Amino acid sequence: MILLERLFSKIFNFEFKEGWSFINVLLLLKTFIISSFIWVFFRAENFEKVKLIFTALVKNNKATNSDLSYLIPFVFAVILILSDFLLYNNRFDKKLEPLNTTYR
Description:
This protein has one domain (2-96). It is 64% helix and 0% strand. The protein contains 5 helices and no strands. It has helices at 2-11, 22-43, 47-59, 71-87, 92-96. Helix 2 packs across helix 3 (47-59). The protein is flat. It starts with a helix and ends in an 8-residue tail after the last helix. The model has no long low-confidence stretch (mean pLDDT 78).
């Protein structure tokens, strides 16, 4: 994907900009979508379930014969969001940086 991204950047002559730009948002969405599809292979027990999940995604219906529970991912998402709010701008490594190497 990185090679394709670099190829398209040379073909269409665009450069990556710092901050939020339209191209950066598209690249962010591309990364999210590809990562989401790849994680299906780690979640499913076998390739039949992978096929079932992808079919349900394409047809926009509920996957039959699947025992996908949404409670556990929801709990982890809430925990991650809360930890992000609590630890925002509170980096542990920056607190250790002024200490002597032995203490670190």
